[in-house]
């Protein structure tokens, strides 16, 4: 190793040594400046490379999008996909190159500057300091007077110690200089060599990549010449066709619109017509109409699902309309509605009228064995689904809900301030509120209180039942249990809003007045209550079977044979809320799945058809019907001497939640069941509604992968199935045995739940197919599926509430 500064020379501290030191220090200072500059340039290069890679990625993504758009052209799609993959590989190689540059140049040289040059600077500081001390000691020793012996000795001792310290420091400094001079070579060359090898690897990888791509590029190059020739030929053909069509006479083009019953696509006639809307403004909109499959349909856009104007043309008539201001109008009238339309000319109007008349004649002429099915389908669709207009929901609104809720003791005054005649309610707490307190509750957020009007909002039966099970008295016993003990003043009517707001936050948010339970009670409160309800429901097995309800009246429109069949099936108990006509209408109207239709009965020989599905569903007994049948075959059990007393669980569950119990707590000792699942097993619909209103997860599963909807289906609790579907339960979720609620209901032969789940699924599919909005810009909540679905759900929920 070549020594830059001689160790012997440094001990002499000669002018030659000082000149060498000064030269070395200047060289190190310049080295530091150059290295700092190089590191900054490297950082700039890396940042620019990252920006280049980001822009390059966007470019490659653009190539991929172009390839996806060109799926119809296999050559372009495959070529662009291959090019995008190769360019992506080059981006990866660039990323590796910049990472290597960061490690070799930036990190390595920064470490050299920070560590080695820092040590050199520290050694220089110590050398400069000891040099000054040595110079001062020499001056003091030279100035010591001859006749003052003690000053001479003191100066001599200081000089000796300073020289000794100087020799030690200068040797360390020279060592640091020599090490730095030697290390600078290796560090600089090492980092640069690593960087150059990274470039070598990068270009080798790029060369290998494009060498593999070269045959494809050559092949495409050869095909490109032929593509240019083909494009020029296609252009000439298009120009010739354009010139030929341009010379044609289009003045009588509307006469070419003809009715063709044997069209390959099944569309006998199609074209644009103006249609008068059924709204109050009677606006006219231009739509694309077509006659297909004996139906008159229209659509706004090609991708929209056609809207059926007339479901069966045999049941309609067509006539001219001369009594309105617009020209060329005609009207298609069916038993349920009429549709006013306008053509662009008199010839087109005559063509459309003739097409509708021909369709009517063709449908009657071709009538065969399928005619009876069409008659039944048209009658049930117009009668069962469209006659009602709105579903018969047993929901209450206005004064009816107000009277029922205010009839609960304590509800005639506001729960928080005592204001009489409240008109608002908190549905998850089950209390009534005045308008001021309702505004404060609303500001707390829905995770504390969900506010609803008693007079303006519509009240579903389950919510009304929940309000009647709780009330102000019950909730105040929980949330104000320690109010008097703590000396807190309850607000009065007319108190300032700030005082009332502070009291409500202390009561419901901080829960300051709730009496705290022990830890064990806090952990098991909600689940133990649900288990208690489960035990109560199981005790009902010892009760004698309920008397059968009276046979419901048959709906109009059924024939004599149908009446006798239905009556015989309803002698003991009605199996389902759906009469056979309704089920036939539902499945002929909406059924696009063959899952249920594939089920055949070995005893009755039900065929794979819409009628077979209807009969299977209408005649399959529900769980309750099966229980009645079993009770009829076996002798009834004796009435027990004493029955268990009725227990109201909702107040206890409200108290548990007030104590901080977790509504979605998972019981690991009981198959990971949640309070909501245990409430399902208890059979109480109101308890489930209470937990759902207080943020219970309707899709949380147990150890078997079953959610509340699975358990409600297995137990045959139809009302709970409706409730969970309303609250967003996922009916497509499968348990560990790959069983969905629908498959469980089919296996259990529960006709009501099967039909509900099928309706929900069909409703979902139709919503997805139609999109979130109808053509008028608003969601179609009055579609037959939606109306029948809501009607059935409300009916089942009300029935279960009545039974409990």
Automatic annotation (TrEMBL):
Residues making up the signal peptide according to the UniProt record: none
Which GO terms of the molecular function aspect are on file?
GTPase activator activity; zinc ion binding
Composition skew (Basic and acidic residues), residue ranges: 367-378
Q: Where in the cell is it found?
A: Cell membrane; Endosome membrane
- Its main localization is membrane
| Bias (Low complexity) | 379-388
Notes on how activity is controlled: GAP activity stimulated by phosphatidylinositol 4,5-bisphosphate (PIP2) and phosphatidic acid.
Superkingdom of origin organism: Eukaryota
Job description of the protein: GTPase-activating protein for the ADP ribosylation factor family.
| Official protein name in the record | Arf-GAP with coiled-coil, ANK repeat and PH domain-containing protein
Native species: Collichthys lucidus
């Amino acid at each position: 190793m070549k020594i830059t500064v001689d160790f012997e020379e440094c001990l002499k501290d000669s002018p030659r040594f000082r000149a060498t030191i000064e030269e070395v220090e200047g060289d190190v200072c310049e080295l530091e400046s150059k290295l700092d500059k190089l590191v900054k340039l490297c950082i700039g290069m890396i940042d620019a490379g990252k920006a280049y890679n980001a822009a390059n990625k966007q470019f490659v993504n653009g190539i991929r999008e172009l390839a996806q758009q060109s799926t119809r052209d296999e050559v372009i799609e495959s070529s662009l996909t291959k090019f995008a993959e190769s360019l992506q590989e080059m981006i990866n190689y660039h990323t590796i190159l910049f990472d290597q540059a960061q490690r070799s140049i930036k990190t390595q040289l920064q470490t050299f500057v920070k560590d080695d040059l820092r040590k050199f600077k520290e050694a220089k500081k110590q050398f400069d300091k000891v040099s000054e001390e040595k110079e001062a000691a020499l001056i003091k020793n030279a100035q010591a007077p001859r006749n003052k012996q003690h000053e001479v000795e003191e100066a001599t001792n200081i000089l000796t110690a300073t020289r000794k310290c100087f020799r030690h420091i200068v040797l360390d400094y020279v060592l640091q200089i020599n090490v730095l001079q030697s290390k600078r070579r290796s560090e600089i060359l090492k980092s640069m060599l690593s960087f150059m090898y990274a470039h070598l690897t990068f270009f080798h990888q790029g060369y290998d990549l494009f060498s593999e791509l070269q045959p494809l590029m050559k092949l495409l190059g050869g095909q490109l010449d032929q593509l240019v020739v083909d494009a020029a030929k296609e252009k000439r053909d298009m120009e010739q066709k354009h010139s030929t069509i341009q010379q044609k006479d289009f003045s009588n083009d509307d006469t070419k619109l003809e009715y063709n019953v044997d069209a390959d696509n099944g569309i006998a006639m199609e074209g644009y017509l103006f249609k008068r809307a059924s709204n109050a403004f009677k606006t006219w909109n231009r739509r694309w109409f077509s006659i297909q499959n004996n139906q008159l349909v229209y659509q706004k856009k090609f991708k929209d699902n056609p809207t059926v104007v007339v479901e069966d043309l045999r049941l309609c008539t067509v006539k001219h309309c001369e009594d309105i201001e617009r020209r060329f109008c005609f009207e298609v009238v069916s038993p349920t509605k009429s549709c006013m339309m306008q053509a662009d000319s008199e010839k087109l109007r005559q063509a459309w009228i003739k097409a509708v008349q021909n369709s009517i004649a063709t449908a009657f002429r071709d009538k065969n064995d399928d005619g009876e099915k069409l008659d039944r389908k048209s009658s049930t669709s117009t009668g069962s689904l469209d006659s009602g207009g709105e579903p018969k929901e047993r929901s209450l609104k206005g004064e009816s809900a107000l009277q029922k809720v205010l009839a609960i003791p304590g509800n005639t005054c506001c729960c928080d301030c005592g204001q009489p005649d409240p008109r608002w309610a908190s549905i998850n707490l089950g209390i009534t509120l005045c308008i001021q307190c309702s505004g404060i509750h609303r500001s707390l957020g829905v995770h504390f209180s969900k506010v609803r009007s008693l007079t303006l909002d519509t009240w579903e039966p389950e919510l009304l039942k929940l309000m009647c099970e709780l009330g102000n008295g019950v909730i105040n016993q929980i949330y104000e249990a320690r109010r008097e003990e703590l000396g807190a003043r309850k607000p009065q009517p007319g108190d300032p809003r700030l005082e009332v707001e502070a009291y409500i936050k202390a009561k419901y948010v901080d829960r300051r007045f709730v009496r705290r339970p022990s830890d064990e009670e806090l952990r098991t409160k909600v689940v133990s209550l649900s288990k208690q309800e489960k035990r109560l429901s199981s005790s009902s097995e010892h009760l004698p079977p309920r008397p059968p309800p009276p046979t419901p009246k048959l709906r109009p429109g059924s024939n004599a044979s149908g009446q006798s069949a239905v009556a015989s099936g309803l002698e003991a108990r009605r199996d389902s809320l759906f009469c056979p006509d309704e089920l036939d209408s539902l499945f002929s109207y909406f059924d696009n799945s063959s899952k249920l239709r594939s089920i055949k009965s070995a005893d009755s020989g039900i065929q794979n058809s819409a009628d077979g599905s209807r009969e299977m569903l209408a005649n399959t007994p529900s769980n309750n019907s099966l229980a009645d049948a079993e009770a009829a075959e076996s002798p009834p059990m004796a009435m027990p001497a004493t029955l268990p007393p009725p227990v109201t669980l909702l107040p206890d569950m409200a108290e548990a939640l007030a104590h901080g119990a977790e509504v979605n707590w998972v019981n690991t000792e009981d198959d990971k069941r949640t309070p909501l699942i245990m409430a399902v097993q208890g059979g109480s619909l109101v308890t489930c509604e209470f937990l759902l209103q207080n943020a219970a997860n309707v899709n949380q599963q147990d150890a078997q992968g079953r959610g509340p909807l699975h358990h409600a289906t297995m137990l045959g609790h139809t009302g709970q199935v409706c409730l969970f579907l309303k609250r967003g339960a996922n009916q497509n979720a499968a348990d560990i045995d790959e069983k969905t609620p629908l498959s469980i209901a089919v296996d259990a032969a529960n006709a009501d739940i099967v039909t509900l789940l099928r309706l929900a699924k069909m409703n979902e599919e139709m919503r997805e197919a139609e999109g979130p909005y109808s053509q008028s810009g608003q969601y179609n909540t009055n579609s037959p599926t939606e109306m029948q679905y809501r009607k059935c759900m409300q009916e089942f929920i009300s029935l279960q509430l009545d039974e409990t």
